[in-house]
Automatic annotation (TrEMBL):
SUPFAM superfamilies: Class I glutamine amidotransferase-like (SSF52317)
Cited InterPro entries: Class_I_gatase-like (IPR029062), DJ-1 (IPR006287), DJ-1/PfpI (IPR002818), Prot/Nucl_acid_deglycase (IPR050325)
Domain of life: Bacteria
A GO CC term attached to the entry: cytoplasm
The protein, known as: DJ-1 family protein
All copies of domain DJ-1/PfpI, residue ranges: 3-165
UniProt xrefs under Pfam families: DJ-1_PfpI
Keywords of this entry: Repeat
Length: 184
């Protein structure tokens, strides 16, 4: 069974965080949420999230994927945390998946994990003038090797379903998706 780390930073986009956590857990993927400290996380719209643990507690653990929810303030807080960069680089260089949605691809870019890759993000959250080797696309979700990026709250469900497919396979993705009653 796959294990996924979802770091939760103050100001994260709650719709993205909860959608990712919920859908992956529906697929029986182990999801660990970790705060940057021991405080509850106040998300961008005021929803308070209680992480399972802290980043310090999970640093020695092994994960199959790390997924960064967006939100401008949340992405900024993730990007300022050297532990997040360390975890991203460790997983990336182990050949594991790294994923980010909305404003959070800036964290991947700052960690140099989007160099010479295709990606997507919330409009204007990633300045191509600062990262000229990244090819930004307008697609809802972009997969480039083991790096998966997505645009924003409206693409969170598609993003989470693709994460499920990558970790658990297409039949599990289809099973989870059928229970969501999404229009075809």
């Amino acid at each position: 069974m796959s294990t996924v780390l979802v770091p939760l930073a103050q100001g994260c986009e709650e719709l993205e965080a909860v959608t990712i956590i919920d859908l992956l857990r529906r697929a029986n993927i182990t999801v660990i949420t970790a705060g940057l400290d021991e405080k509850p996380v106040k998300a961008s719209r005021g929803v308070v999230l209680i992480p399972d643990t802290t980043i310090d507690q999970v640093l020695p653990e092994t994960f199959d994927m790390i997924v960064l929810p967006g939100g401008a303030a949340g992405a900024e807080n993730l990007n300022r945390d050297p532990r997040i960069h360390q975890l991203l680089k460790t997983l990336f260089y182990q050949g594991k998946y790294v994923a980010a949605i909305c404003a959070a691809p800036i964290v991947l870019a700052t960690a140099a994990l989007l160099d010479n890759k295709q990606a997507t993000c919330y409009p204007n959250s990633l300045k191509i003038s600062h990262f000229p080797t990244i090819q930004l696309l307008d697609s809802p979700v972009v997969i480039d090797g083991k790096v998966i990026t997505s645009r924003g709250p409206g693409t969170a469900m598609d993003f989470a379903l693709i994460l499920i497919e990558k970790l658990a396979g297409k039949p599990i993705r289809e099973q989870v998706e059928s229970g969501l009653m999404r229009p075809h």
